[in-house]
């Protein structure tokens, strides 16, 4: 049985995330209590909204320390997505400089429009090109489409952390992996067949 703690830090409606994990075979619990994370086999950190607000909410609930204790200290498998991916970085630049959780050496920067991709926020379906060895994308065809809603992206300092990229606004990192830490920029719970396969892969790790 995969007990999955979905971290509630007040940044999004988590019901669709809970239903998706349940449908993929996990046993989800939505919680804002740090102690609950110690009872989980896996931890999921979703989210939408602004980076500084999210970090403040995590800190006010003492969830930042609880996450570090479980994920970095106890090697509990972790999946962040959308804002939950961005929070793993060292620094976010939304509304000024703000320290992140610091698990991945990276900056969170605004997408820069290009002549071929002039629209920011980036909203809708776009392809994701995973690294061949990525366990998170096992069984998912290269260049499969996933659903995105974001204006900022993760710029990794170390290329070995990059698990997938997406060719929009000159290209950006759409997934990272480091040890037991996994994260994606898109919404798996809204990405239909491919998103559910990714969640199943995470639950099977």
Distance between the termini: 13 Å
CATH architecture: 3-Layer(aba) Sandwich
Question: What fold name goes in the CATH topology slot?
Answer: Rossmann fold
**Helix and strand run:** EHEEHHEHEEEEEEEEEH
Structural class: alpha/beta
- Number of separate structural domains: 1
Helix content: 10-25%
Oligomer: single chain
Envelope shape: globular
Tell me the β content. Answer: 25-35%
- Biggest sheet layout: 9 strands, mixed
- Rounded mean pLDDT is 96
Strand order of the largest sheet: 2-1-3-4-13-12-11-8-9
Which residue ranges are poorly predicted, with pLDDT under 50 across at least 5 consecutive positions?
none
CATH superfamily: Class I glutamine amidotransferase (GATase) domain
Rg for CA atoms: 16 Å
Question: Would you kindly provide a written description of the structure presented here, covering whatever features stand out?
Answer:
The chain has one domain (3-204): Class I glutamine amidotransferase (GATase) domain (Rossmann fold), CATH 3.40.50.880. With 205 residues, the protein is of the alpha/beta class. The protein contains 5 helices and 13 strands. A hairpin with a 5-residue loop joins β11 and β12 (172-178). It has helices at 15-23, 51-60, 63-73, 83-86, 192-204; strands at 3-7, 27-31, 42-45, 77-81, 89-92, 98-99, 104-110, 122-130, 144-150, 152-156, 162-166, 172-178, 181-184. The strands form 2 sheets. It has a 9-stranded mixed β-sheet with strand order 2-1-3-4-13-12-11-8-9, with helices on both faces. Strands 6-5-7-10 form a 4-stranded mixed β-sheet, covered by helices on one side. The chain is 23% helix and 34% strand.
